[in-house]
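Let us practice reading a record.
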Amino acid sequence: MRMRSVRLAYVIPPLLAVVLAFLGSVRLSESGVVGVSSVVTAAAEGRTTSNGRIASALEHVARRHHATIVRTVADRSAPTARRTVLVTNAPGSVGTDWLRDGYTEFSRSVRTTVRPMAALDHHDPVGSYEVIGGAAAEHATAAALRTAGFTTSSATVPALDRLGVTGGTQGTSGLIGSLVLGCVTLCLAGTIGAPRRTAVRGLHGRSAGVIVCTELSEVRATVLVVLVGAPVVALLLWLHNGLASWTTFATAAAVFCAALLVPVVAATVLGALIAARQPIAAGLRGARPAGALVLLTQVARLPAVLLVVAAVFDLTSAIAVSRSGSDDRALRAAGDAVQLWVTPDPRPGSDSQDYWDRIGDFVGSALERHDALLTAAVEVGTGTGSGSVAALFVDEEYLRHQDLRAQNGERITATDDRITLWTPPGAELDRTAVTRAVSGWELRGASAAQRRHIGGGSLRSAGVYTYAGDSSAVSWLTDAVVVVVPDASAVFTADQLGAWLSTGDVVFTSESAADRAIEAAGLGDDFSAVVSVGQAAADRQRQAATIVDIGILAVISGLAAAVTLALISTAAQHRRHGRRLFAGIAAGHSSLRANGELMLVEGLLLGAGGIAVVNRWWQTRPDGSGAVSALDPAARAAGLGGITAAAVLVVLAAVAAAVAAVSTRTVVRSRGCGS
């Protein structure tokens, strides 16, 4: 038995809701503990009381307000995978349960250790305190921290953020839009497009309200999916994480399902009312409402095409990011190098120039001792016109770890303080112009003699490793200029070096070297993590893989919606104008001429899609102005995304033309009857 289109439209929302709730719960779990109602941030601008007294004050607040106060401390070597939560121990609170039973994460990629708040003695008290409780607990926590000498700010966590609903919608708008559009179209096709069904109900004396209620009874398909799917989802969650945070997941799924059902119900009511307004006799003959279905389905095809274009670009950029630095070659090149993460919590004077100069001096000393290396990828001017080229600024220590060869095969080294500039092989660059542009701006801190006598030549092979710190930069540059600056600490300002440290453009050679340097400088509280570059690349790969999976689902659902709309709109057009089509074919007109209206629509859709492709490519391509970085793997894939999206549009147009041809033959065989 074939499923009605309206019933199918009510099957999709609960399935999509489960997927979105799972994504949201994973992101919520990875960002912190579940159930936080507010966050109080403490900043120290003067002397504060001891950590032990702070912990005691927070315990008193928790007991008085029956709340749980949490201080999350990330593991310095694996901040995205391991963390410690310091919790209060108020009787009957979730903190007591966590201290007794441990905290089970929804996401399997994170491991959380629970410690009592008394352990704050061994950690920095400056930062965020998460409150699980009412507004009174939030205010009392802020007051306790102010009494301890801190400056505080508070923020209430919105209910949708607390449930993970906001996280579930991040990066999934294309998927949601495609499926909602498909569901709305199915509802309209199953109501406006089924006049005989509505006419028969009217013939039996049913009012428009009863007809609408009858159509809405298809919501039982949603109920059936929920009843059958709930035990299956529960079993899968039990296997995944032992049903951790299942109430939050279930609530998020219910919210998503309700929100997704709203447009489906609205489309069902609208379609049923339009169908019910038609004369019973016309409905029994199968006549369609006066062009309503044709107009609606053709109009709905435009957003479907635009969603497909956006989904293809998103998928292409996600694949580019996932492939930008996750291969074994990149992991080997990273070696033991580590990044330092500057503490994001408010620090005393962290917004002052002196603070960042102190961080920069720390970086300069580390570079001089060869504990750290410079690997700053930036865009520089080509010296001709407004064009730009990627450049990697490196120092002597970088050359010790990475084997770069000149055109003659000799390994590039830095034996004195002479700056050298190396262009990629086969590059059509004016080396003199590039050198002049770089020395005039990026190397403005170098001595006059250094800027006048910049050496170098051409690289033997393309491909330099960047120690990329995040997904906004590629790990390997194949078309970059390499600028070797032996005495980077003297050429670049402390402010610049501090900024490069915070963006991952200065890395330490090993974790032990980083720890040694931090301890010697007394800056332990200013760095929240010492992260392996290889581990950071693996974390980016894991996150990028999830985005790729979402992108694939979005493209598939978008294509399905676009093709379904093409089928429905073509069928509606031919059912409405079948006799005219038959007469045209019988008169000797070609199928293309007889379907002129459909071909015009296809041309308009192809043109609109083409404009969307060009616009998206224009906005995301690196144009040399610096507005879009040429170092961003997503931006570098803009051209491929445009080509792929254009090809998809052509395929969709070809499919629509094939559907029209097949439908035309069917109409001709039936002599246009029943239309």
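A brief commentary: The chain has a mean pLDDT of 83.
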